[in-house]
């Protein structure tokens, strides 16, 4: 395989901080062992998220200078609408401040309290907005998605039998819509095939069910279709994206991922009636329908970024970089979710720390340990992220993962080497690592702001012994 270099060169640099082990110990303690609560200045390589962390291009920055900051009717809005029409094929657009703003609006518009919303695995903010609107989420993803070692090429696919069974159980009129995410974040950035999208469309047509997409990482999904699905080799990603989206009634978009911007999102659709409702709500929650909580310059940056993200060379490098990191970890025997996904490498924390029970929070623990080792920041995606069910019981998801998320156009493969070396070091001393427990649990989306402490320290304090050094310190 020939080496794939960055299809861009670096015009501006941002210095990052290198820290000592002592500084990192102080930082993670102050953050309550929650990587979301670390200060960015204490982080060396930040793989918390690919959301809003992209480097923008010179073209995007130029477009920002041309932003129209009029309160109403700004031409920046027209630029976004033109770009969405041209690249995604949807005629109608309602901007929002970010993806969850769009999720909030669409959940309120399409869900009547008591209705059901199937989807291909939950996403935290998506499900919360569906529940706040009175809906009940149902996971209809294929079983392979819940198995970190399954090498199914389209692990994001909807299980058509599960979808049909839900229709039979509750009745099509009680299904508000089906939400198909491309790619599936919580499953490991796994794609959905074109054949699966078509098959879901057929069921929706048969029963008159609205087919929506969380299109947040649609370019990466299309790249996987190009790589893996019969009939798509050699077809440009931009074309595949248009075909994918032609099957959906509308999308929610977090522009912070595949529109290559630091902030922004939108709803796009074909139905005027949905747009009218979105405009009624957007003025209450976000801003005028032509800016949706964003500055004019943000709309312009998004209009340019969504086109750039469909470039085949950019995507080949981007997903190649994620793969580079994943393959280095695999070579060292570190258990990761396979196949390696589009935006991140997901470590199987349950297998990595198989001496810990899920209630000892293996993924939260591992994320803290990786930070302690090298200053690399990652994210828990397991029991803490899954939260509690309606009865207040902890959900126990099958996947207990740590996400090493690669920002777009930001780091080089040398950074990936530093990350891989660090994870491998932690893997080699994994048996010394003890779990964590909650000291403060926030009620909603608890992973963002909860605080933790090491179980060892807690046990020692209970026994009246002095607190021992942190595992591995
Ligand atoms: C992320 F820890 N993702 O992956 P907004 N749909 C999908 C997303 O990935 C997504 C949103 C909708 C983030 C940020 C984040 O539990 C968390 O623009 C598939 O972030 O509002 C966001 O888009 C929402 C991190 C969100 C989290 C929720 O890092």
Key features?
473 residues; alpha/beta; 5-stranded mixed sheet; 3-stranded antiparallel sheet; binds ligand P61
Quick structural gist:
By secondary structure, this protein is α/β, with parallel strands linked by helices. The protein is built from 17 helices and 14 strands.
Overall strand count: 14
Listed once per kind, the bound small molecules are: ligand P61
Overall pLDDT: 96
- Order of the strands making up the biggest sheet: 2-8-7-6-5
Helix/strand class: alpha/beta
Query: Any idea what the shape is?
Result: globular
Biggest sheet details: 5 strands, mixed
- Work out the helix count: 17
Cα(first) to Cα(last) distance is 40 Å
Kindly provide the radius of gyration, computed on alpha-carbon positions and rounded to a whole number of angstroms: 22 Å
Low-confidence stretches: 466-473
Q: What is the share of helical residues? A: 40-55%
Beta-strand percentage range: 5-15%
Topology:
Blueprint lengths: L20 H10 L14 E2 L11 H8 L9 H14 L3 E5 L2 H12 L5 E4 L4 H9 L3 E4 L20 H11 L7 E4 L12 H14 L3 E4 L3 H11 L8 H10 L3 E5 L10 E5 L2 H14 L10 H13 L3 H20 L12 E5 H4 L9 H13 L1 E2 L1 E3 L1 H4 L14 E5 L7 H16 L7 E5 L10 E4 H8 L11
Parallel strand pairs: 1-10, 3-4, 5-6, 6-7
Antiparallel strand pairs: 2-8, 7-8, 9-12, 11-12, 13-14
Helix pairs in contact: 1-14, 2-11, 3-11, 4-5, 4-10, 8-9, 12-16, 14-16
The structure holds ligand P61.
């Amino acid at each position: 395989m020939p080496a794939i270099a960055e299809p861009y060169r670096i015009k501006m640099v941002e210095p990052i901080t290198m820290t000592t082990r002592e500084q990192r110990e102080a930082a993670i303690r102050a953050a309550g062992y929650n990587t979301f609560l670390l200060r960015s200045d204490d982080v060396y390589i930040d793989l918390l998220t690919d959301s809003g962390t992209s480097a923008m291009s010179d073209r995007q920055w130029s477009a920002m200078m041309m932003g129209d900051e009029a309160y109403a009717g700004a031409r920046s809005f027209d630029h976004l609408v033109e770009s969405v029409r041209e690249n995604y094929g949807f005629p109608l657009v309602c901007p929002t401040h970010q993806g969850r703003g769009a999720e909030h609006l669409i959940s309120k518009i399409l869900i009547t309290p008591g209705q059901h919303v199937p989807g291909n695995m939950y996403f935290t903010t998506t499900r919360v907005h569906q529940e706040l609107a009175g809906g009940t989420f149902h996971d209809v993803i294929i079983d392979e998605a819940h198995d970190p070692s399954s090498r199914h090429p389209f692990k994001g696919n909807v299980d058509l039998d599960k979808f049909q069974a839900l229709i039979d159980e509750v009745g099509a009129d009680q299904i508000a819509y089906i939400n198909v995410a491309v790619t599936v974040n919580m499953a490991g950035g796994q794609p959905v095939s074109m054949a699966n999208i078509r098959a879901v469309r057929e069921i929706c047509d048969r029963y008159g069910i609205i087919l929506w997409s969380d299109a947040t990482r649609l370019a990466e999904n299309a790249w996987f279709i190009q790589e893996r699905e019969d009939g798509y080799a050699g077809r440009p990603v931009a074309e595949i994206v248009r075909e994918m989206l032609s099957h959906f009634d509308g999308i929610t978009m977090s522009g912070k991922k595949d529109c290559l911007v630091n902030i922004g999102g939108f709803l796009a659709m074909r139905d005027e009636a949905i747009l009218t409702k979105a405009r009624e709500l957007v003025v209450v929650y976000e801003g005028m329908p032509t800016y949706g909580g964003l500055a004019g310059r943000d709309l312009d940056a998004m209009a340019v970024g969504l086109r750039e993200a469909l470039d085949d060379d950019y995507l080949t490098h981007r997903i190649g970089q994620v793969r580079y990191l994943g393959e280095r970890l695999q070579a060292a025997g570190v258990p990761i979710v396979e196949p390696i996904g589009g935006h991140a490498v997901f470590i199987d924390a349950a297998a990595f720390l198989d001496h810990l029970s899920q209630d000892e929070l293996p993924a939260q623990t591992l994320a803290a340990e990786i930070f302690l080792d090298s200053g690399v920041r990652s994210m828990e995606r397991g029991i803490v992220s899954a939260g509690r069910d309606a009865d207040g019981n902890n959900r126990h998801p099958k996947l207990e993962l740590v996400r090493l998320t690669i920002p777009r156009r930001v780091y080089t493969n040398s950074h990936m080497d530093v990350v891989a070396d660090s994870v491998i070091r932690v893997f080699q001393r994994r048996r010394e690592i003890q779990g964590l427990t909650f000291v403060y649990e926030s009620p909603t989306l608890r992973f963002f702001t909860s605080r933790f402490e090491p179980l060892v320290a807690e046990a020692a304090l209970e026994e009246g012994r002095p607190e021992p050094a942190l595992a591995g310190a």
